[in-house]
Amino acid sequence: MAAPDALSDFAAFPFSHGGAERTVYRKGSGPAVIVMHEVPGIIPEAARFARIVADAGFTVFMPNLFGTPGKPVSAGYGLREMARACISREFHVLAENRSSPITEWLRALAKRAYDEIGGRGVGAIGMCLTGNFALTMTLDPWVVAPVLSQPSLPFPITRRKAATLHATAEAVANMRRRAADEGLALLGLRFAGDRVCRRERFATLAREFGAAFEAIELPDAAANPEAPKVLGRPHAVLTLELIDRAGEPTRAALDRVIGFFKERLS
């Protein structure tokens, strides 16, 4: 298990919107990227990913959406935070063709980042529970580099839910329009055997967005063998399952994410 991460190299500030206030961890300089962590929270591996993005020449804004910042993952911790998210009014984990209310707060944070930093626009990456949120955030024209890492909502309790998107018809249509008019692209990542983010969802993304959707699907054997398999199979491409070593498929996937941000934001 990783040691706790004090996040002492990040600057922390409160951000409020719609009556909700959360702490946002900020690091780096350059174009803005909103990093939305997965369940159970800002684990040390999520902080590592944020540092890599910042070191690549970006300003990371990483809001604390749930969990205890810096606390290492464990099965019990993961299950508790997942249960809390499932009953939260801000996360609608079974919703098809609509998004969770928390995306309004995230869109406001992206606007704050863009107003402050400017440039070509803002990047946004969601993971697992937050994985689909970057798609909804493209409703705003300043979000120009959306990444969906193992997008897991709605939870695949039925075959239909496994294939649907956690986004409104408006957001999907807007993404298609922006892809045609602006060349906007969408990057997605998953492990081939992921039971939560199934290939049916990537098939839907490919059908909806065609060449505008770039899919990275990694074999399960590429995952870090020492990572705890909280969900039974490899899942967290850029955090727990990352093997941060040249030549590893997960590191190549991370490098592609950085390259995508550079192409779209720099």
Explain how this protein is built:
The protein is of the alpha/beta class. The chain has one domain: Rossmann fold (3-Layer(aba) Sandwich). 35% of the residues lie in helices and 19% in strands. It contains eight helices and eight strands. An eight-stranded mixed beta sheet has the order 1-2-4-3-5-6-7-8, sandwiched between helices. Strand 5, helix 4 and strand 6 form a beta-alpha-beta unit. The longest helix has 17 residues, at 249-265. The termini are far apart. The model has no long low-confidence stretch (mean pLDDT 96).
CATH architectural name: 3-Layer(aba) Sandwich
Strand order of the largest sheet: 1-2-4-3-5-6-7-8
**Biggest pleated-sheet summary:** 8 strands, mixed
Pick out the low-confidence regions. none
The CATH superfamily bears the name Alpha/Beta hydrolase fold, catalytic domain
Mean pLDDT across all amino acids: 96
How many strand segments?
8
- Indicate the radius of gyration in whole angstroms: 17 Å
Q: Tell me, what's the shape? A: globular
Order of helix and strand elements from N to C terminus: EEEHEHHEHEHHEHEH
Which fold name is given in CATH as the topology?
A: Rossmann fold
Helix content: 25-40%
The end-to-end distance, rounded to whole angstroms, is 36 Å
